[in-house]
Amino acid sequence: MPTLSNSALSAGAFQDETPLSRTQVEQLIDNRIIEDEVKASVIRKRGLDFKLTPALREQLIKRGAGTQIIQALEEQDEIAAFAAYSKEKDPVLRLKIGQELKRNYPRNPRVAAIASEMGELELELFEASYRKFDANPNAANLKTVLELGTEQLNKNNDRMTELHVRTRLASATGKGMIGNFYTDLENSRKYASQALALLENTASVSSQDIDKFNSLRADNLGMVYQFMGLYLLRQQSPDADQAIGFLNRAAEFKVGSSAVDPNTFWLRAMARDMKLQKSGEEYRNLTKNQRVGRQAQSLCATFNELVNQLIEDYASVIKRSCKVRLSPP
Fold first, then answer.
1. Cβ distance 283 to 303 under 8 Å?
2. Which domains are present in the chain?
3. pLDDT, tens digit, for every residue of 58-110?
4. Which of 81, 222, 247, 310 is most deeply packed, by most CB within 10 A?
5. Distance of alpha carbon 281 from alpha carbon 284, whole angstroms
């Protein structure tokens, strides 16, 4: 380890640009001949290759570091911390460093810009967690999405951020309900209802956000309709008619994935089967005389219509579930 002798300081310390190690700083402090002003200048010129923790700061003060030396060390430590933030590419580590900068250097003018960027990083990490969940839907990945999404909603009131996060939460919990690894129906319904209200409200969207809004709406509204239909079928007292209303909208929303998702038609078939069973029960409860009257005719017409609709839905499920591959000649 190179040492800092008196002659080295006087002859070449200012020409050497390599950062000072902790040992070299301690040697500098121990030198009783050189003035603190010169020592501080060397520290500012060379910089540091170590982090000045609160504990180390106290140790150096006890070793004899004066105010000028400590101030120079703190300045260089701050410069190094901001440089590390600028160089870091990993969003997780960058966010961690940014949080430390906000906590340790609140008066630094660069903190405001970093705080703004951290909001973008947090949203980026949330989106990365959703992509991971979407590629591998399971309870553990969903838990991460919910945790990061809740943090986002607690921190940011920006309308487009809220729309983005609530839509992702609605999608993730909906897929969890369909996959049977998430069971909180009311929480899922809450996310879907909130997303639906935002996606259907085009009046309050600013001109600068309209393209982003339209993209989110196209990608997600149909699936939110599907999830709303699912929850109506899974609630304690299923509502087949309302469910069919939402599922019809999901099937008719051609710009998104809901119109080609077999689950849309499977759920609608379930709702229509509920109505079919109810019509059959009503018919069985008719008296012999009623079974030849108008009420029976109406029930039979409803029954036939539902059977035809069920056939169409089952055909749609099969069509959208199968991938036909043609072998080369």
1. yes
2. 1-87 (no CATH), 129-260 (no CATH), 263-320 (1.20.58)
3. 999 999 999 999 989 988 888 888 888 788 888 778 888 888 888 887 888 78
4. 247
5. 5
